[in-house]
Amino acid sequence: MKNLPFSNLKLLLLGSGELGKELVIEAKRLGCYVIAVDKYENAPAMQLADEHFVLDMSDKKLLMDLINSLKPDFVIPEIESLSVEALNDLENNGIKIVPNSRTVEMTMNRDKIRDLASTELNIRTAKYRYVYDFSKLKSNASEIGFPLLLKPLMSSSGKGQNLVQKKGDLEKAWNQALENSRGDVKGVILEEYIDFNYEFTLLSVRTKEGKTLFCPPIGHEQYNGDYQCSWQPIPIEKSILEEAKKVTNIILNNLNGAGIYGVEFFVKESYLIFSELSPRPHDTGMVTLVSQNINEFELHLRAILDLPIPEINLTSPAATRVILSEDEYQKFAFYGIYEALKIKNSKILIFGKPHAKKGRRMGVALATGLDVDQAKSRADQCAKEIKICSSDIKNL
Ligand SMILES: Nc1ncnc2c1ncn2[C@@H]1O[C@H](COP(=O)(O)OP(=O)(O)O)[C@@H](O)[C@H]1O
Ligand SMILES: [Mg+2]
Question: Among all ligands shown, which has an atom nearest to the Cα of 150?
Fold first, then answer.
């Protein structure tokens, strides 16, 4: 691997959202050839990649045929809804899947990674039960206790996730979860509701040699399971942070694939609870675009490509605030950018998603400050200035 000519490296990105877009930017900076795939045309990462394809990536044959015909050096998943069978077969035929196909499979549904952490590795998690059969929902819910969270086995950004207060509300939540579930497995996970003091993401980089490097922890707030704002660093008791690093090491030693991982934890009183992990750059980690010497996207690439990471450090406290669409628009424009950019040390990323839907993340405001409070306040003000409105004359 070492000393390969970089301009010859071909990366295939499965999923072309806003995180994929930033990954393409960093990959192009390193001279790679990038092919972006998603299920819809004109997705953010496609707008920058050398080539793109529109494809249902949960279809085994379609995915295998595409990858076999392109022969990429690395297949880099950016989303969860993929045919893991295809990735398994391809890996067995010598195609490099990032970080490896087992990890993609373990983290695709909530069940496998949860079982690995809790049952095999003895890591503290919220109490949980899987339910695949509606008739078993009530008895399982009683074992967990109310309130509880009912989530689809596979989903992201909190889609289909509900806080259920009592037995009578279970059926509605069950239906919503199944409507929002991705993939073939129809089931839900019931989770003990943790009334945590705070939650954080520990971005962790696994190198080819099996070393784990950590970014300063990132604090974040979620609304209905979807990320609203993040900041770095978040002050954490030394013993809790040490434990989070220890737990991460245990999991990554097991998964054992190079790349960046977003490891999510809750802290309640003085104890740490592992929540979930994604083997790719994390949405809350977009803050690293302005806060670190090497951002999470470049870290992912350096780890995958076996390039040196001499040191990860914080260059400034920073924060993000998402820019959401309040409605559905086929044609739209961003208003208020002029006012937003008057705010010191602020930056806006407009993702370039072709359509706006109610609640869809369309951009993010980033800011640095002398401390996290100042950075947060700047990112908040910046996002507040921006409004997404119809640009279709008929709707004005
Ligand atoms: N068991 C739980 N108790 C309390 N809050 C939770 C629990 N599980 C998830 N949440 C909240 O919902 C957010 C999203 O849940 P998560 O399982 O990370 O879903 P996703 O895969 O969509 O990111 C979490 O960051 C947290 O704020
Ligand atoms: Mg999460």
Answer: 1
